[in-house]
Amino acid sequence: MVNRLAVNLCGIPMQNPLVPASGSFGFGLELADTLDLNLLGGISLKGTTREARFGNPTPRIAECTAGMINSVGLQNPGIEVLVSEKAPALRRIYRGVIIANISGYSVEEYAFNCGRADACPDIDLLEVNISCPNVHGGGMAFGTEPKLAAAVTRAVKEVTEKPVFIKLSPNVTDIVSIAKACEDAGADGITLVNTFLGMRIDIARRQPVIANKMGGFSGAAIFPIALRMVYQVAHACRIPVMGCGGVQRAEDVIEMMMAGATAVQVGAENLRNPMACPEMLEALPELMDRLGIKCLQDIIGVV
Ligand code: SIN
Fold first, then answer.
1. What pLDDT, in 10s, does the model give residues 254-273?
2. Distance from the CA of 2 to the center of ligand 1, in angstroms?
3. How many Cβ atoms are within 10 Å of 3's Cβ, its own excluded?
4. Mutate which of 130, 132, 192 to test ligand 1's pocket (most atoms within 8 Å of Cβ)?
C-alpha cells in the first residue's frame, strides 16, 4: 500500500515529513516513554558544540502571547557524548531519520564537530545551526552574513559525506541572499527558521524576565513570517527546505509544504504538548481527503 505521507528529503526516504525541531525534544531518548518515537519522520537533536556547555543563567524562559522566549544558551553534553552515547542509544530504539544539530564558535569548530558526526553511522543528516541567538561570538553571527554562512558551509562540506542542511536565522533583512550563499557553497538543504530575537520585561521588578535580557521568540505567533521565508527560499533555491516556525496543527503542515517545505519541523508546540507530532500525523489523512490531496509529496511548493 502506498504511504501517502512519505516524502523524499534529498535522497533520504522519510515515512512522513514531521520532525521535532532541535531544542524541543532533547536527544529523543527523553521522550521515549511518552510517545512512540517511531511515528516520527525524523528527530533533530539538541544543538551540540565541541565542548559540553552548561548554558545561560536562569531564568531562561519567558511566556508570551502565542509563543515563548528561550535563552537556553546551547546547553549540551558536547560532540563526543553525542556521537558515542546519544545517537547510538537513539538508533537502538528509533528507525527514522536522525538529525545532528551542530553548533560552533568558529568555522574550525563547525568543521571539527561535523567531522566527528560524519564518523557516526547512527546520524543520517547534519543540520548546521548558524542561527542560535543566545550565545555570543558564534551561532547567529555566522547566519546573518552571506560570506560567513558560505564559509561555514564550505568547511563542513569538506569533512562529511552526509547531507548538510544549514539552519538559518530569521533575524536578517534578506533571507534569500543567505540561503543562496549556502546553496552556492554546496549545502544540500536549508532549515528555516530559527527563533526571532525577542524580550520581555517584568514590570514589577523593572527587570528583563530573562537573565540574559533577550532570547529567541518562537511559537504560533511566528508562523506567518516563517511561512513567508520558507516560500521565498524554496522558490529562489533548488535545494530542499525543512520548514520550521510556529507549526501547531495538521493544517500548518500542509501550508508549510504548499509554500515549498519538503519536511516540517515542530518546535515550541512540543514543549506545550509533547503529543503534538503524533496528533498532527493522526489528523493528516482526513485533512488530505478533504483537500483532495493524494500524497504529501505532490503538494510541495504548489503555491
Ligand atoms: C539555545 O540553546 O539557546 C537555543 C538553540 C537555538 O536557538 O539554536
1. 999 999 999 999 999 999 99
2. 37
3. 13
4. 132
128 C-alpha vs ligand 1 centroid, how far in Å?
A: 12
Q: Which of 74, 166, 194 to mutate to test the pocket of ligand 1 (most atoms within 8 A of CB)?
A: 74
Catalytic: which of 10, 114, 120, 132? 132
The pLDDT confidence band at residue 96, using thresholds 50, 70 and 90, is: very high
Peptide bond preceding 156 in cis form (omega within 30 of 0)? no
Is-contact 90 98, C-beta < 8 A?
yes
In the chain, pLDDT over 90 holds for what percent of residues? 96
C-alpha cell at 278: 503524533
Region label for 163, one of left (φ > 0), alpha (ψ between -120 and 50) or beta (otherwise)? beta
- E strands in 103-233: 125-129, 164-167, 189-192, 196-199, 201-202, 207-208, 214-218
Distance 232 CA to ligand 1 centre (A): 24
132 assigned to active site:
yes
Residue scoring higher pLDDT (136 or 282): 282
